[in-house]
Specification:
Elements lengths: L1 H12 L3 E6 L2 H4 L13 E2 L2 E2 H4 L2 H6 L1 H17 L4 H16 L2 E6 L5 H5 L4 E3 L2 E8 L5 E3 L39 E5 L8 H12 L3 E5 L11 H7 L3 E6 L12 E4 L2 H8 L4
Parallel strand pairs: 1-4, 1-9, 4-5, 9-10, 10-11
Antiparallel strand pairs: 2-3, 6-7, 6-8
Bound molecules: nicotinamide-adenine-dinucleotide and zinc ion.
The site of nicotinamide-adenine-dinucleotide (NAD) has 28 residues, from α2 and β10.
Keywords: Metal-binding, Mitochondrion, NAD, Transferase, Zinc
Main location: mitochondrion
Subcellular location: Mitochondrion
Length: 269
Amino acid sequence: DEQRLTELHDKLSQSKRVLVLTGAGVSAESGIPTFRGSTAGSWRGFTISELACPEAFQRSPSQVWELYHYRREKSLAAKPNLAHVAIAKFEQFCLKRGIDFMLATQNIDRLHQRAGSSRVIELHRSLFLVRCTACDSVTENYDSPICEALRGRGDPSPQADSTPIPEDQLPRCAGCSGLLRPYVVWFGEPLNEGELSSVQEFANMSDFVLVVGTSNAVYPAAMIAPDARRSGAQLAEFNLDASCSSSNDVSYFVAGPCGSTLPKALPRL
Ligand code: NAD
Ligand code: ZN
């Protein structure tokens, strides 16, 4: 096992182009629950997937805003873990050695950037963007509170007060005062096409695609690694145990929490 890790480490340092694809599992050791697997979270009796869709927002913008307010606060309070750091250091290594590097994440928590990664494609955008449902303008909202009414609504327990917040007290657009929504990609919504195809192109020309902490169940991101495999890339997957493997076509399956395994597998300066 250690020998396989060393072998992977050596191959990575000799490669010409590497894509790292991450999912919720990379942030699990920062205390942020995943959607699937043994580390999955829930919200007041709902699975998070049930609320992460446009239909849920139509039905109850208050409920969805409370969930996203909670996730945003939780991400702000969390710290990048050793997995985020190993990926950021690997990027530095690649830069120095002339290895083409790209990080594509399905996470919306910005922990990669806070660990020092700079070439990050956020496939599902981020918890810190909002979009107006009336005029479509998009704004970045990193450190200011989302709105007064959401303060103190950050309790995920099923008993928490779930009297809906009146719509006029939910986050509103500064320009037209329309209702704002969290601007993450929800289930059933398209990804940015240009971004997706640049990741796909990069993946298909890579020698290695590292799949880290993702159940690889969410399309179209789930197609990136299998497609790259067919184009000749080798796959290395990092997940808790073999039962989580998303494909039997991986050259390296590294079992264990990625905060422990990635620092051993990824070269650094
Ligand atoms: P997922 O919840 O479907 O799967 C998480 C995977 O991570 C599981 O396979 C699990 O076994 C694995 N895992 C858990 N802890 C791990 C660890 N310490 N080391 C290695 N692997 C570990 O997540 P997904 O595949 O990213 O897809 C679900 C969607 O959830 C995405 O659209 C993403 O945007 C969203 N999401 C994001 C966050 C976040 O931003 N942190 C959190 C939850 C969900
Ligand atoms: Zn507006």
